[in-house]
């Protein structure tokens, strides 16, 4: 069986090959039941057959009433010959004459079988991409969650600092201001750190989502050439997102206020200092 491409109504007049006899003469008919293009002679035979006499055979110009029509793809090098073979060494589709002239010493498969193989490969890569998408999305989510907790802790510390400041207002105004500035600096530092940590994940999530969309939305409608181009992209790009053996590493810092004794001679110790403890959460990804 020949490979297929999608052709719109405006293109139906382009010469095509009869699916049954490979003729390019008087190819005027299309069977909606068999999805086959036929010449005048094969159409007559088709309508006399016991199993096909009641098939819906229409002029080829009317074959796309419900949308697109599947027509055989013709070899550009050998007009009239359909592309029905695939060279596994050169990675090209070809007709029987191409095989005889240039590829007869190569490993060759039937294009329909190869297309099914490529579709299976694309589906396998879809599963791999989904697992990688989960890894990067989870890392991004946990990092934002840690940043939110960090900032909430900063708010608690800020209130503690202000409470201490009310107790020793006259003596500690300058120290309170200094610590508040330090907290703001930590917040800005955390924002920048979070932004830098999540930047690679944002790109990976965007790229992988695009690949998944191409597979899910376009793979079934692609021509053989487009499909092999897509699977070629997958072979080159999927290894770039390898997360085998990696764990999600999210820095955890919990700022707190370490208070001191209320002593007018030791104002700085009375207000205390900010401690931002470090910690990490890990997630193992099973590939």
From TrEMBL:
GO terms for cellular component: nucleoplasm. Residues 13-60, 74-111 form the B box-type domain. Pfam families: zf-B_box. SMART domains: BBOX. Keywords: Metal-binding, Zinc, Zinc-finger. This is E3 ubiquitin-protein ligase TRIM33. The keyword Zinc-finger applies. One of its GO terms (molecular function) is zinc ion binding. InterPro entries: TRIM45/56/19-like (IPR047153), Znf_B-box (IPR000315). It comes from Mizuhopecten yessoensis.
